[in-house]
Write a structure and sequence with these properties.
The structure holds two protein chains of two kinds. Chain A has helices spanning 2-20, 41-51; strands at residues 25-34, 61-67, 70-73, 78-81, 97-101, 105-113. By secondary structure, chain A is α+β, with helices and mostly antiparallel strands. Chain B has helices at residues 11-26, 42-53, 70-74, 95-103, 123-126, 146-149, 151-156, 175-185, 202-218; strands at residues 2-8, 30-35, 59-65, 82-86, 112-116, 133-139, 159-163, 190-193. Chain B has a seven-stranded parallel β-sheet, sandwiched between helices. Chain B is globular. The chains are: A alpha+beta, B alpha/beta.
Chain lengths: 114, 221
């Protein structure tokens, strides 16, 4: 269900951007979604198709790009990919880490006709 | 033509959440967001917590419920204001609904707002509502694999309550597995083992909460 809520927000931004760029039709949308978000691509596609019906983005193709999870170790001052759900530093085992990517839901671009 | 946008889709929710957080900071009110599956014991925890702390602190509850007012009714006799949000089928609370719920509370006369989110381990973790802390509740009958299956909640939470600890021996819940998973997934997460029904470990929860309330009250004298 949160897919619908996310898609409603997405559609609002698409409509605003399409208007600002004088698009008459939106054909393609690219979103980048972090792996921690637990968003199911099939649901997203279904939710988007449902919500976009009879809007400027009706029938638009949704491309979903996945963003991997990375952490930053404060001690080593380095970034690492997260492997096997482990959120400690792979070099020094420090717990003093921050998740730097993996939580995003970003509208990257839209493609359409003027 | 292609148009580059790169905008955070949840920005509207996050901006509203930040606004609410500023408001609550000005009022020195602590707001916690309790998240769990249906049936893990969110409402029962409130039924214990409200009488235990309401003589010391001024508390209000924001109750997120998909369809009914049953949870709100259960909390009706504790003498604290309960603001009900029916999400009408939606699986989580968003900051816009919290803003509405806050508007009927007397913010000049409160120390703590407890938000009982909709029963769900996935979606509520995605949406900030302006809270100071997310609290995850997991109950032993749900199984020890839930942290790994729902990593975002256990990473966002400031505290996890492992409820129904009295039922441990009747379930397949393996505490070693659970703690080993958490150590990888969210190494700094504090866990308190409790049983709301059998009154086990609740004093540790009250102490945690009290410390946070006092810190918030003192933060902006």
């Amino acid at each position: 269900m949160h897919e619908f809520s996310i898609m409603q927000n997405l559609l609002k931004i698409i409509e605003k951007e399409a208007k600002a760029n004088s698009l008459s039709k939106v054909n393609g949308i690219t979103v980048k979604i972090g792996k921690l978000r637990q968003v199911v691509p099939e649901f997203i596609e279904f939710a988007f198709a449902t919500i976009a019906k009879d809007t400027i983005a009706d029938g638009a193709k949704l491309n979903i790009e996945s963003i991997p999870i990375t952490i930053h170790c404060e001690k080593c001052n380095k970034d690492y990919p997260v492997i096997e759900d482990t959120y400690t530093c792979p070099d020094c085992d420090s717990l003093d880490i921050k998740v730097i990517t993996g939580k995003e839901i970003i509208l990257a671009s839209i493609e359409g006709d003027q | 033509m292609q148009i580059q946008i790169m905008q955070d889709v949840l920005q509207a929710n996050d901006a509203k959440a930040a606004e609410l957080k500023t408001l609550l900071n000005e009022k020195n009110i602590l707001m916690i967001n309790i998240i769990s599956s249906p049936g893990s014991g969110k409402t029962t925890l409130l039924e214990k917590t409200l009488p235990a702390l309401s003589s010391k602190f001024k508390i209000a509850v924001i109750e997120g419920d998909v369809e009914t007012d049953r949870d709100a009714q259960r909390l009706d006799h504790y003498g604290v204001p309960v603001s009900l949000i029916n999400t009408c089928g939606s699986c989580h609370l968003e900051s816009v609904s919290i803003e509405k719920a806050l508007s009927v509370l007397d913010l000049d006369n409160l120390d703590l707002i407890i938000v009982e989110n909709v029963g769900n381990l996935v979606c509520p973790a995605e949406f900030d509502i302006g809270e100071d802390h997310k609290i995850a509740i997991l109950s032993t009958p749900e199984g020890d694999d839930k942290a790994l299956k729902y990593p975002l909640l256990f990473q966002e939470a400031a505290l996890a309550l492992l409820n129904k600890i009295d039922l441990l021996e009747h379930t397949d819940f393996n505490k070693d597995t659970f703690y080993a998973d958490l150590k990888k997934l969210s190494p700094n997460l504090q866990v308190l083992e409790i049983s709301c029904k059998k009154q086990i470990g609740l004093e540790n929860w009250y102490a945690w909460l009290e410390e946070k309330i006092l810190a918030k009250k003192g933060s902006n004298p």
